[in-house]
Amino acid sequence: MTPLNARILFEDNHLIVVNKLPSEIVQGDKTGDKCLLDAVKEYIQQSTGKPGNVFAGLVHRIDRPVSGAVIFARTSKALSRMTAMMKSRDFSKTYLALVKTLPAEPQAELAHFLAKNEKQNKSYVCSETVAGAKLAQLSYRHLASSTSFHLIEIDLLTGRHHQIRAQMAAVGCPIAGDLKYGADRSNSDGSICLHAWKLAFEHPVRKTTVEIIAPLPDKMPWNLFVV
Questions:
Q1: I need a surface site. Which of 151, 168, 181, 190 has the fewest CB within 10 A?
Q2: First CA to last CA across the chain, in angstroms?
Q3: CB under 8 Å to 58, separation ≥6 — which residues?
Q4: Cα(19)–Cα(1) distance, rounded to whole angstroms?
Q5: Cβ distance 214 to 69 under 8 Å?
Q6: Are 195 and 210 spatial neighbours (Cβ–Cβ below 8 Å)?
Q7: Percent of the chain at pLDDT above 90?
Q8: In which band, very low, low, confident or very high, does the pLDDT at 191 lie, cut at 50, 70 and 90?
Q9: 34: which residues sit within 8 A by CB, 6+ positions away?
Q10: Hey, is 67 helix, strand or coil?
Q11: Angle formed at CA 88 by CA 83 and CA 90, multiple of 5 degrees
Q12: Are 20 and 68 in contact (CB under 8 A)?
């Protein structure tokens, strides 16, 4: 596994952005596996030489089988301001996905209502009248194709549970490797071909624009494409 310090995309006294591997969990769960949040805390402690506990706050999550940029705050002030930006949608998140079925339109905006099934840890497209249904919106654009895969750029307009996975599956284009949402086969490493590629936001303290690009996983089928 590539060490964490080799995957840091941005770092200052307020924020750390890490390129997450698809096998990692962002925050601890019932598996007991070591999470990225704990690894970030260990890194801060080692790099600063501070004794005792250090602060690292999780700004947002991405699913375990997904790779890409994840933001951590190094201060409570940065965490509260970043969380507020995420809620107000004053924040740009762009993903790249590989699908085996080309979307009907080369680019479009999708809007569905989604309901989460807690037991299955899965979201379903539903009527807006269903209890707990939330509006999910994204826009996508077809970028390139290989013999077997199509590269899709996706801008998230809302932040719902499994949103990209559920919405792309709903239009007949499940993410490659995503058996839960209808892919024809899994990836050997348990990943799905979805990558948190670009982030853009106002720095919570400096008030400058921060733009992050997370390199794609260095493996097939991602290696078929250059972005």
A1: 190
A2: 23
A3: 26, 27, 37, 70, 72, 73
A4: 12
A5: yes
A6: no
A7: 82
A8: very high
A9: none
A10: strand
A11: 90
A12: yes
Kindly give the residue spans of alpha helices, DSSP state H, lying in the chain: 36-48, 76-87, 163-170
In the predicted model, is pLDDT for residue 31 greater than 90? no
Q: Which CATH code fits 4-224?
A: 3.30.2350.10
pLDDT digits (tens, 9 = 90+) for 132-186: 999 999 999 999 999 999 999 999 999 899 999 999 999 999 999 999 999 999 9
CA separation for the pair 156, 67 (Å, rounded):
16
Confidence of residue 1 (pLDDT cuts 50, 70, 90): low
Q: Where are the alpha helices (DSSP H) in 2-152?
A: 36-48, 76-87
How long, in residues, is the chain?
A: 227
Residue 23 contacts residue 191 (beta carbons within 8 Å): yes
Q: pTM of the full predicted structure?
A: 0.94
Write down the H helix ranges in 32-119: 36-48, 76-87
Name the token pair of 98: 């590989």
Tell me which amino acid residue 175 is. Answer: I
Q: Is 57 helix (H, G, I), strand (E, B) or coil?
A: strand
Token digits for 142? 């077809």
Domain boundaries, given as residue ranges, for the chain: 4-224
